[in-house]
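Before relying on records like the one below, remember that each one covers exactly one chain. Contacts with other chains, cofactors or solvent are not represented anywhere in the record.
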Amino acid sequence: MKLQPFSIRQQEFSKKMRGFDPDEVKAFLERIADDVEELLKENEELKQQVETLNQQLEEFKKIEKNLQDTLLKAQESSTKSIESAKKQTALMIKEAELKAAQIVEKARESANEIRNAVLNLREEKDMLISRLKAIISSQAHLLEVKIEDIDEEVVVQKKKTKDENKKLDLNIDDIVEKLL
C-alpha cells in the first residue's frame, strides 16, 4: 500500500505508558505528510514533463524521419540528375565528334577537288604553251619561207629584207614568256 499524505495525517498510534509525546509525533507525521505531498506533486509534474517531452520526442522523430526521407530523395534525385547530365554530355560529345568528322571529311573532299582542279589547270596550261610554241614555230617557219621567196624576187628588196630579217629574227621563248 502506498503512503498518501492523508493516510499519514490520519494515522493513529496506540498509547502506552511512557510512550512518545503525542504532539511531537503528530507534528512529525504532519511534516512527513507535507514532504510526501510535495514529493507526489513533484513526481506528478515530472511525469507530465516526461509525457510532454516524450510527445516532443515523437514529433522530432517524425521530423527526423521526414528529413531523412527528403534527404534520401534529394540524393537520389541529384544522382539521377548527375547521371542524366553525364549521359547528355556524352551524347553531345559524340554528336560533336561526328560533326567534326563530317566537316573534316568534307574538307578533305574539297581539298582533293581543288588539288585535282589545279592539276587539270596545270595540264591545260602546259598544253596551251605547247600549242602556242607550235603555232609560233610554224608561223616563224612560214615567215622564213616567205622571206626566202621575197629574196629571190627582188634584189633591191633584199637589202630591206635583210634589215627585216634582223628584226624578224624570232626568239620563240621570248614570245611565249611575253604571252604568259
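The chain has a mean pLDDT of 83.
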